[in-house]
User: What shape does this take?
Amino acid sequence: MLTHLHIENYALIEQLDLELHDGFSVITGETGAGKSILLGAIGLILGNRADSKSIKTGANRCVVEATFNLNGYDCTDFFSENDLEYDASECIIRRELTSTGKSRAFINDTPVQLTLLKTLGDSLIDIHSQHQNLLLSQANFQLSALDTIAENTTLLQQYHNEYSAYRQLCDDYEQAVNQAQQSHDDEEYLRFQLQQLADAKLQDGEQADLEAEQEILEHAEEIKQALYSAGEALQTTTDGNDALSLMRSAMQSLEHITSVLPAADELLQRLQSCNIELQDIADEIASQSDSVEYNPERLSYVSERLGTIYSLQKKHHLDSVAELLELQANLEQKLNLITNSDELLADLQKKRDAKRAEAVAIADKLHKKRTDAAKTLQKQVSTILQSLGMPNVLFQVETQTGDLTSTGIDIVTFLFSANKNVPPQPISKIASGGEIARLMLSLKSILATKQNLPTIIFDEIDTGVSGVIAEKMAHIMSDMASNGRQVISITHLPQIAAIGQHHFKVYKDDTADSTLSHIIPLTADQRIEEIAHMLSGANLTEAALQNAKALLG
Assistant: This one.
C-alpha cells in the first residue's frame, strides 16, 4: 500500500509530505482546491505522460516520490527479473521532471524506463476517475471484468500463445499462397533465365583467368619481341658483349688476383652469385618466349567466352561469376519450390488447421468458465445494487460465441434495467450517471476480491447519488479496505466522508504572490467541522455541527 507521498513544485503544490494508512481514507475539499492536482502527481509515479507545464511557476523541476509497503503482495519476481533492489517493507518510486522537458524515473534509486514504471504502477494502484465510468459500456472492459471473476489469467496466457502461433501460421500460409501464385506466373521466365545460366557452364574464378589470357594473346607479338630482346642482352653473342659474357670476364679477372688481394675473393663470390641469378633469369625469359605465341583462334574463343560472361553480368546487374552461380542456385531453388508448391502449401495448411484446433480447444474452456462466471457476477452485482436503492434492478451478463479472436470466441454484453417492466438493455443505452456510478462500484467491489491490488483510489465515484445511498456506497468502499488493502475516496458527500477511518482535506492558500494547494490530515474536531461545512456550506451552524457528529457516530 501507499504509505508516504512526497511532492515538490508540482502545479500549485510547493511542498507536500503526506503519511497514508491502510483501511478506508477520504479526501475532501472545495472544487478546484487541488484534488485533481494530487491525482495528477500520483499519475506521474504510475508512468503517465509528463508535461513540463505541470512544474510550479518559477521552479526548475518537480519531484514526486511515493513509498509503498509491499508486504503480503508477492512482487519478488518482478524485481528479480528486472535486476532491481527489493525490500518488501519499503519500495520507493520517484519521478523527476525538469523545465526543459526531461523526465527521469527511479525504482529504489535505480533509473528505469517509463514502461517498466507503468508495469509496476499498474500492480500497485488502481485509480478510478469519473471518466472511467464510461468503460463500463465497452465490450473489452466487460470481457476483462468477466475474466477476472473467472480467474482466467493462466488460461488466457495459454490461449494468447496458441492464438498468436495460429495467426502466424495463417500469415505464413497466405504469404506462401501469394508467392506460389507469383512464382507460377513467372515460371516460364525463370526457366529461361536458368537455362541461359546453365548453358553458359560457368566456373568460379574463370573470368580472371580468361581476362589475363586475353591480355597476353592480344599483345603476343609485342611480348615475344620484348622477351627476345631481353634474352639477347643476357645470352652469349658473337662479339661477347652480352651480360653473361661480360660477367664471366669480370670473374676471370678477379680470379687472377685472389692470391694477392684477399678482398678479391669475396667480390668473386658475389659475382658468381649474380651470374647464377642472371643465368636463371635468362633461362626463364627463354621459356616464356617459347610459351608465347600469337593464336587467333584461341583469342577468338577467349573473347567470345568473356562476352558471354559480361552479357550475363549486365543482364542480371551482377559483378562476378560467383554471383551468377549464386543466382543460378537461387533460380533452381525457386523452380523446385514451384514444382513442390502444392505439397508445401498442403503441409502449411495442415499445421495451420492443427494450431487452430488447439486454440479453439482452449477458447472453449474459456467460454465455459466465462459462462459460469457470468451467472456468479449477475447474482453478486444484483445483490449489491439492490442494497444501493435499486430494488427492481435487472443485471445480466450475456455471452455469445463468434469467430476466433485475440480474446477467444466470446462476445460479452452487460445488460441493465433499474425499473419494473423495462427489459434490460446495454448499459450505454439505458443507465443514468448515478446508476452507472453504483454499478461500477458494485463491480469494483467484486473485482477487488479477485485482484491483488494494494491501493484503490476512487475519484468522486459517488457522482449522481446522495443521502442514504451515498452512505451505503461508503460502507461498500470501507468493506473493500480489508486484509491490508488501502481504499481512498475523493468525495464531496458528507455521508461518505464520515465513514472514512482517516480524513484528509485539500485547500488553497493565497499568498502575496502565488496560490498554493495543501493537503492535511484532520483531527477528530477538524473532521466534525469539515463535515459540517459539507452539510451547510460556508455558514457553519450548530445544527450542521450536530448532524456532523451524528454522521461520525
Remarks:
- The chain has a mean pLDDT of 89.
- Residues 201-339 form one domain.
- The longest helix spans residues 153-200.
